[in-house]
Amino acid sequence: MKKRKRKFWQPVVTEFVVLYLIMMILATMLMAQKFAGEFREELEQYAISVLQDASGRELDVRDGIWQEEDWNRETRGAFYQELSNQKLWMIDNDFMSASAAFYDENKNLLAQSRNEISGRAQISDDTGDFRHAKVSFGLNDYLSSEELAKLAAYRAEDIQTVIAADFTVPSPYKYYLRLSADGKELLGIIVQEVTWRETTWEELEQREEPMYENPLTGEAYVTETLAGKTDFATGQFMSEEKEFEGTDSRILWEWKNPAPGNGREEEGQITYADVTLPYLLSWYRTGGLYERWSRWNASGYLHTFPEQEEFTWETGIEEPPFEEAAGIFIYRGRYRLKIGMTDDPSGYAEIRMEARPWHAAMDYMKYIYLIGFVFTLASLAKVLRAFHQTNRKQAALEETRRDFINAMAHELKTPLGIIRNFAENLMEHNMEEKRDYYLTQIIGQTEEMDGLVTEMIGISKLDSEKLEPGKEEVSFSELIREQMERFRPVIREKDLQVRYEDRVDFLVKGDREYLARAVWNLLSNAVDYNIPGGSILVRIEGERCVIENTGFPMKEEQLVHAFDLFYTEDHSRSGKDRHMGMGLFLAKKILTLHGMGLALENTGDGVRAVIRKE
Question: Average pLDDT in the 368-382 region?
Answer without folding.
Answer: 89
